[in-house]
Amino acid sequence: MADREAAAIAEGFFSSARDLLAEHGAREVKTIGDALMLRAEEADAAIRLGLRLAGEVGIRHRYPSVRVGMQAGVGWRTVGH
After folding, report:
1. By the 8 A CB rule, do 21 and 27 touch?
2. Which sign, positive or negative, has the C-alpha torsion 27, 45, 32, 14?
3. The pLDDT of residue 9
4. CA–CA distance, 59 with 1 (Å, rounded to integer)
5. How far apart are CA 44 and CA 78, in angstroms?
6. Contacts 24+ apart (CB under 8 A), 32-41
7. Exposed (0-12), middle (13-18) or buried (19+): which is 63, by Cβ within 10 Å?
8. pLDDT number for residue 1
9. What is the mean pLDDT of residues 48-68?
10. Least enclosed by CB within 10 Å: which of 35, 38, 55, 76?
11. Rounded distance, CA 61 to CA 4, Å?
12. CB-hemisphere CA count at 13 Å for 52?
């Protein structure tokens, strides 16, 4: 797969994922390559969002496997690290 094609697939995934954020009380933290880091206020909403990302969004044409990882609890924001 060419770099531009891979970038277009990632952007398509990001766009579809972003469309679901408000519905789940989530927001985008950042992208890292082809990964999207999100934050949700409620754990149950994060789980529902993760299931939708892996199930609905992830099965769309030409998307590679979508994996979802989660962490619960206090997150720390650092600058420059």
Report:
1. yes
2. negative
3. 86
4. 18
5. 26
6. 34/6, 34/10, 39/75
7. middle
8. 63
9. 85
10. 76
11. 17
12. 14
Domain boundaries, the chain: 3-57
Q: Which long-range contacts (CB under 8 A, 24 or more apart) does 33-40 make?
A: 34/6, 34/10, 39/75
Task: Indicate if the pLDDT at residue 63 is higher than 80.
Answer: no
Place of tokens 């990882």: 69
**CB of 16 closer than 8 Å to CB of 57:** yes
Q: Decide if pLDDT at 81 tops 60.
A: no
Give a three-class secondary structure readout of the chain: CCHHHHHHHHHHHHHHHHHHHHHHCEEEEEEECCEEEEEECCHHHHHHHHHHHHHHHCCCCCCCCCCCCCCCCCCCCCCCC
